Amino acid sequence: MPCRNSLLAATALLLAPPVLAQEPAVPIDIPKSRLAEAIRRLGDQSGVSVGFHDASLQGLKVKAVRGRYTPEQALDAMLRESGARARRVAPGAWLVEKAPRAPVTVPPPAAAAPPPPEPEILVTGTKRAVPIGFYPGGIQIIDGERLTIADGARGSDAIEARAASVATTHLGPGRNKLFIRGVADSSFVGPTQATVGQYWGNSRISYSAPDPSLRLYDVGRIEVLEGPQGTLYGAGSLGGVVRVVPREPDLRSTGGTAWVGAQTVAHGQPGGDAGAILNLPLSEGRLALRALAFGAIDGGYIDDKGRDLKDVNEVRTYGGRAALRFEPGDGWSVNLSAVGQHIAGADSQYAERDGDGLSRSSRHAQPHGNDFWLADLVVRKQWDELELTSSFGYARQNVFERFEGPPLVVVAASDSTKAALADPELEPSREAMAARFSQRDRISMLSAETRLSRRGPNGTGWLIGASLLHNVAAVSRQMQTDMMRLPLTGVHNKVDEYTLYGDAAFEPAADLVLTFGGRLAHARLSGQSRDTLPVMALRMDPEAASSRTETRFLPSFAAAWRPANDLTLFARYQQGFRPGGIVVRRDFIQRFDGDRLQSIEGGARYGDERLDISVSLSWTRWHDIQADLVDGFGFPTTFNIGDGRVRSVGFFAGWRPLPGLELDAALYLNDSHVTSYVSALSGAETAVPQDFDRLPNVADATGRLGFSYQTAMTASLDFAASGYGRYVGKSTLGVGPILGQLQGNYLDTGLEFRISGERHALSLSVTNILDSRGNRFALGSPFLVRDHNQITPLQPRRIRLGLETSF
Question: The pTM is what?
Answer without folding.
Answer: 0.83
